[in-house]
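Hello Y.,

Per our agreement to keep a running log of every chain we model this quarter, I'm adding this entry. I've kept the format consistent with earlier entries: sequence first, then predicted structure.
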Amino acid sequence: MKAMGNEVFYIFGGLVVVYFLITFYNKRQSRRRKSRSFMEGRKLRDRQDSGT
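Predicted structure for the entry above:
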């Protein structure tokens, strides 16, 4: 029965690692979205498309 207790901790540890990976990925994406350089190219492209 002791082995079963260890497996629970391994599963929990794996879930924590996955949670942190997703959190860091989302933070990086939101930071990228907030930066001016992310939207700069899109605005320029929109201006060129509407101008022609």
